[in-house]
Design brief:
Number of helices: 8
CATH class of the largest domain: Alpha Beta
Number of domains: 3
Largest sheet: 10 strands, mixed
Number of strands: 15
CATH architecture of the largest domain: 2-Layer Sandwich
Oligomer: single chain
Distance between the termini: 60 Å
Helix content: 10-25%
Low-confidence stretches: 65-71
Shape: elongated
CATH topology of the largest domain: Pseudouridine synthase
Radius of gyration: 22 Å
Structural class: alpha+beta
């Protein structure tokens, strides 16, 4: 196979993992280590950077029957509401209940559906992630250069990500900063969870959440939550640790209350990626995107006024 312009600069392992969809990563690394992968007829390591025009030769590779079946039944094509789009990136308004990508029990997500809907697009990659239950702004890069520049911004905390979250109870107005380390772990059944740990815990990752009261409601508080670190389930765990879990959160929330809320019309977690600020990856222009509350969340807020 020949490396195209869009893949120039990628590590060889990442290039092959993307190109050989359905081949386990362990197998990709095995054939690289064994010297069976050749770049321009020479041996190459996993960290070799490929350039446009490079010829990559591979041994025959097989995919498992399960993956082969999945590849034969691609994700259904689906477009999502677009908040912003140019030749470098797309900002979509992700609905709740849709994973951003396939894996861990989910056969496909937003990115697979978008690729099916846009077969002519040479490059579509997620810039960041949102929990399956979270709605709101999600960025997808249309060029390799846009992906790396935007991901650098997220990594260096140069973006502004603000969520709207409905916390159970009356949030104390003076509680504006939550600075508690988080630790990710697996439960006995293999499900991923996160918990607050002590400041001196070697497994704890520093996590900072800024909270502002947007609206006081009957039995709830609508919060504007800005994250300074992008940890898994950060907002959900931080708010729950303060005794004010997110309404409808089935992992860290109040089970009995959630059942009651379901009967009242709130059948999902009330967490929405509302505002995103970033610099355009090509021009550097400051961009601010807003995603209004989905109808089911806006309706619930009005009923609790």
């Amino acid at each position: 196979m020949t490396v195209e312009e869009e893949s120039a600069g990628q590590r060889l392992d990442n290039f092959l993992i993307r190109e050989l969809k359905g081949v386990p990563k362990t197998h990709v690394y095995r054939i690289i280590r064994s010297g069976e992968v050749r770049v321009n007829k020479g041996r190459a390591g996993a960290d070799t950077r490929v350039a446009a025009g490079d010829v990559v030769r591979l041994p025959p590779v097989r995919v498992s029957e399960r993956i082969a079946e999945k590849l034969e039944k691609p994700a259904p094509a689906r477009e999502f509401p677009v908040l912003f789009e140019d030749e470098h990136l797309i900002a979509i308004d992700k609905p709740a209940g849709v994973a951003v990508h396939g894996g861990s029990g989910v056969s496909f997500g937003v990115i697979e559906q978008l690729r099916q809907a846009r077969p002519a697009a040479k490059f579509l990659e997620l810039v960041h992630r949102l929990d399956r239950e979270t709605s709101g702004i999600l960025l997808v890069a249309k060029k390799r250069s846009a992906l790396t520049r935007l991901q650098d911004q997220f990594r260096e905390r140069e973006t502004g990500k603000t969520y709207l979250a409905l916390a159970v109870g009356a949030w104390p107005a003076n509680k504006k900063v939550i600075d508690l380390p988080l630790h990710k772990y697996l439960q006995a059944d293999g499900e991923r969870r996160v918990k607050v740990v002590g400041k001196d815990d070697p497994d704890g990752m520093r996590s900072i959440t800024l909270v502002k009261v947007a609206r006081k409601l009957d039995g709830f508080t609508l919060l504007e939550v800005t994250i300074k670190t992008g940890r898994t389930h950060q907002i959900r765990v931080h708010l729950a640790a303060q005794g004010h879990p997110i309404a409808g959160d089935d992992k860290y929330g109040e089970f009995e209350l959630n059942k009651t809320l379901g009967k009242q019309g709130l059948k999902r977690m009330f967490l929405h990626a509302w505002r995103l600020k970033f610099a355009h990856p090509q021009t550097g222009e400051a961009i601010e995107l807003l995603s209004p509350l989905p109808p089911e969340l806006a309706r619930f807020v009005e009923e609790k006024k």
